[in-house]
Each structure stands twice: as C-alpha cells, then as structure tokens.
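thread from #wetlab-drylab

HS: before we spend reagent money on co-crystallization trials with guanosine-5'-triphosphate, can we at least see a predicted complex? here's what I'd submit
DV: go for it
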Amino acid sequence: AAFVKIDEDLLEELEEALILSDVGASTSAKIVAEVEKRAKLRKTTTASELRDLLREVLTDNMLDNQPLDVSGRPAVILVIGVNGVGKTTSIGKLAARYVSEGKKVMLSAADTFRAAAADQLEIWAKRAGADIVRHGEGADPAAVVFDSISAAKARGSDIIIVDTAGRLHNKANLMNELAKIDRVISRELPDASRETLLVLDATTGQNAVHQAEEFNKAAELTGIILTKLDGTAKGGIVIAISAGLGVPVKLVGVGEGIDDLIDFDRAAFLEAILPPAEQMTGDSENEEEGAEQE
Amino acid sequence: MAFEGLTEKISSAFKHLRSKGRLTESDIKEAMREIRMALLEADVNFKVAKDFIKAVTEKATDAEILESLSPSQQVIKIVNEELVALLGGQTTRLTISPNPPTIVMMVGLQGAGKTTNCAKLAALLRKQQQRRPLLVACDVYRPAAIEQLKVVGRQLNIPVFDEGQGDPVEIAKHGIDYARRNGYDLVFLDTAGRLHIDEKLMDELKNIKATVKPTEIILVVDAMTGQDAVTVAQTFDEALGIDGVLMSKMDGDARGGAALSVKAVTGKPIKFIGTGEKLGDIEPFHPDRMASRILGM
Ligand SMILES: Nc1nc2c(ncn2[C@@H]2O[C@H](COP(=O)(O)OP(=O)(O)OP(=O)(O)O)[C@@H](O)[C@H]2O)c(=O)[nH]1
Ligand SMILES: Nc1nc2c(ncn2[C@@H]2O[C@H](COP(=O)(O)OP(=O)(O)OP(=O)(O)O)[C@@H](O)[C@H]2O)c(=O)[nH]1
Ligand SMILES: [K+]
Ligand SMILES: [Mg+2]
Ligand SMILES: [Mg+2]
C-alpha cells in the first residue's frame, strides 16, 4: 500500500474532491476535520486506510437505505420537486416496477400547468401498464387528485402515484397549492400508507438544501429520488439533506429508460464520491513527486 | 433572489475591512477566505473560485492599494471589476444572420429548459425586431416533447414544424427548407436533452450542426446547477462550439454560481436569462447588474 503523509495538502485534496461532488463547502470541511481526528487516533498511514476512513465518516453522516412503504391499500405516492428534475419520468419508471410486481397502479396527472404534461404522463402510463386520471389543462390539481382517489377506490387500485407540476420552492402560492393537494390526500385516505418523495436532480448544487427544506414544509417528505446520476455529477448535496433533515434517499434515476430507476444503495453512492486511493497523494500541485511506494 | 447569500457574505467580509483604517496582507487574506467560501456556497466551481481569489488577491495586495487612503474601497472595486469581467463584461446580443433565416440551435442537459425558452426567445425577437419565427421539433425521444412544443407555439401563435418521430438531422434540414420557402427569417431548433457524455447523441448534434450550419448554438444551463456545470459546458463547447448561454430558472433562489463558472471555462457569453415558467419570462443578461447584485452595491 502507498504510504501517505496526512498533512494539510492531503486533507485539502480530500476537501476539494468532496466540494467538486457538491457535498458543499461547510459540510466538506466538517467531514474532513472528522477524518483528520480519526486518522490521528488510529495512526493511519496509507492512502487506502485514509480512503476507508473517509468512507466511514461519510457513512456516519448519511441515513441508511430504506425501502418505500406501499403496504397499505391503496398506498399513495406524492411526487414533488422543482422544474425539470425528472418527476414525471421517475413516476413512469416506478409505475412499471409496481405493475411488474402484479400491482394495480393509478397515475394522477395533477400537473395541469406545464404544456403537454398530462400527455407525457399518459405515454408513461401506457408503457407501464398503469391507469391514469387526467383533466384538461389549467384544471385545479387538487380536484384531479380527488378524482384519482375516487377512481382508485372504485377500481381497487393498489397504488396511486401523483404527478405534480414543477415549482420553485420560493413561490408561496405554488407551495400552498401543494400543501392543499397533500391535505386532500390525508382527508380522503386518512389511513393510507403515504410516501411523499422529493425529486432532486443530481446536477443541482447547494440550492437543493433550500428545496428540501421548503418542500418539507409544504408536504412532509418521506424520501428523495435522486435523478440523473448517469451523468458526471455526483449528487453530493443529498448528504447534507439526509443528515440535516432526516430524509433518506430512497431511489436513484440512472437514465431515461423505463428500467432506469433503482433502489438507493448508500455504499455504492458514497463509493462514487470517494477519490481513488492512487490520487490521494497530497501533492497535487507537484504531481511528479508521487507517493512513497512500499 | 439569486446570489443573495453571496452578497451578504461579501459585504460582511468588507464590513470587517472597513472597520480598520489600514489593511495588512493578512486582513486581505481573511476577507478573501470568506469570499471564497461564499463563492463555493454559491456553486461557483472550485477551480474557478480559486483562480478568481488568486487574481483578486494579487491585485489587492499591491503596495499602492494597501497604503492608499481607502484601501477597503479599493479592494471592493477590484472584486467588483473582476466579477464583471468574469461574467462577460457587457450584454451580448443574439447574432442575426445577414442571409436569412437566422438559425438558433438550443442544446443542453435533460430538463434544463430548452423547449420553454426557445419559445420565449422566439416571441421576444418577434416583438423586439419584428422577426417571423418558426419552431422546429427536433426532440423525437422525450415522451410528448413535440406536443409540448406545439402547445407553447399555439399559446404564442408561432408555427411549429414537425415530422413526428423522424430523424432529427432530417427534420432540422426540412424545417429550414420550410422556413426558406415560407418566409420565416428566424428558426429555433428544439433539440432533445442529452448528457454531455452520451457520444451517440452528441454526434447527432454535430450532424445537425454540419447539415444546417446554425447561426447560433445556445447552451441552456439551469441556474441551480452545481459544480458539474463546468464539465457540462466545456464538453458541449468542445463538441459543438457553442456561441452563447441561456441561464434558465433565475426566478429561483439559487445563487447561480454556475453562471460565473460556465463563462469562465468556455469564454462564451451568457446572453439571456429565463425568469419564470410563463412565456414572457425572459430577459437579456446584464453582467454589470449581476455583479452589482452579487456584491450588494
Ligand atoms: N439522463 C437522465 N435523464 C433523466 C432522468 N430522469 C429524467 N430524465 C430526463 O429529464 C427530463 C425531464 O424529466 P421530466 O420527468 O419531464 O421532469 P419533471 O420533473 O416532470 O419536469 P416538469 O414537470 O417540467 O417540472 C426528461 O428529458 C427526462 O427524460 C435520469 O435519471 N437520467
Ligand atoms: N421557474 C422556471 N421554470 C422554467 C424556466 N424555464 C423552463 N422552466 C421549466 O422547467 C421545466 C423544464 O423545461 P423544458 O423547457 O421542458 O426543458 P427542456 O430542456 O426542453 O427538457 P428536455 O426536453 O426534457 O430535455 C418545465 O417545467 C419548464 O416550465 C424558468 O426560467 N423558470
Ligand atoms: K435540471
Ligand atoms: Mg413533469
Ligand atoms: Mg425539451
């Protein structure tokens, strides 16, 4: 194994790697300080041990994997988030998953605002083999949800998945509209098992924290869907959200295809954030010196 | 408001500077440390922030400035000037081709805001310059993408050319032929969202470019983008040679450091900002206003 000197340069390198993964400057500093503390205590001397330590500290700072709870009948999954993050697509994929498990799925087209949003959801409903309730453009989203619940009761659906319009969390009227949808579900199905999933785009930076905080106020979040992890962004901001708000990441989007939604795997997620051991040299400014080899 | 947090941080760093009569190099270092932290929290790319701080520190630690009567004012001025420069200096317009039609190709990651903002831009230029725009539906992949473009076209009374789920390169070509025949002098190609690392789909864009030779290739970047903005912008620019950037979703409260980063790594100007979901929500980008907003001046 490569021996490394755990000095300021090396710790700065770790911090840079975390910041570049969107973990955030202050969270990164906190994590690296903890790594330094544990490294001293355990007399860490190799890059691979240091990497293990970083993995350990990151793991301690993030909630573990948790499955969705769709045990009740019907179960309701409300899907929310800012514009363009992948709500409708993730719903299509999720519907396909439950249909393949033999469940009867009802999609609720409560995005009545965006151009052709219901058409998009309808195409996904067909692909997945799910039912859909839609109204005309500009209809009241809460009314669509109400009708979807009635239809689901009548048809004996197992799961209702509600698609909502993308909205920026700093727009009070749109957040109130969301809170209203949430209340309609609670009122109409008081005993249903509920999931309220915030969709976050992995390319999003520090703003995701505000998004999570504000959406959590409008409708209590039970989980996060982290989309677009098939790109080069690492989605590190969910670490701060997971620890700070106590909301676990539950699903991950890895493409535009119907099968491209997988259960969140904390170990795999963090592995992608950790810098490779051979890069942990502490002399990034002076590459040719290299690390001491055993 | 975008950039609000950055403004707070920088002015608090300078409040500290103002409280001292004279500055030492270590005072400046401390202020720069705070500015760097604020830039990172605003999603300015790590390396861009590093370069920025280095450039400002070099200028600010000049003996003449340290010994001047109001050194903190001087430092503020330097930070402001560097930020304006980093953001592109001045407002840049869309290039209009001397041989109509002007062809604008909208490209970017999935969900960035291409479809919505090409419609907004078309309406803006129709109003400002009395152009006759046409929208061309080159996204044959996303479910209901063509229908979405048709709906916004209808709302604005702007025609949409489509050939269903055909070949995007052919559709672009036929769309331009159609524009020529029918006297449309401004054509927007709405392309599908794609990852910069998707070689097949990036090749498709290269083929469209080679076939129709667009006047402008506009990269649409979401204002909420984090550190990856530089990788995305650089890769699109290397593959296509972009001409400008449109920052969408500026009506959110993201501080929008991606704007600084994208400009810094590509050298291409940010030309427009999207400020809402409605089809009138678009404005030209003003680097000086943006810098003033960042610095709270
Ligand atoms: N690469 C990739 N693209 C994705 C993923 N999930 C969604 N997309 C794409 O992202 C774009 C936006 O997805 P939508 O599902 O329409 O997003 P939305 O949140 O419903 O958008 P609005 O309803 O407009 O707010 C589409 O082009 C999708 O195909 C993913 O995991 N990976
Ligand atoms: N608030 C706000 N929303 C915007 C803005 N621009 C676009 N949107 C929204 O962002 C979402 C995605 O916009 P689209 O125009 O569909 O994005 P796109 O890049 O064409 O998406 P794909 O074709 O799937 O890659 C939609 O909900 C739009 O209404 C903006 O400036 N502000
Ligand atoms: K996005
Ligand atoms: Mg949607
Ligand atoms: Mg589009």
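DV: DSSP finds twelve helices and eight strands in chain B.
HS: ok that's useful, forwarding to the group
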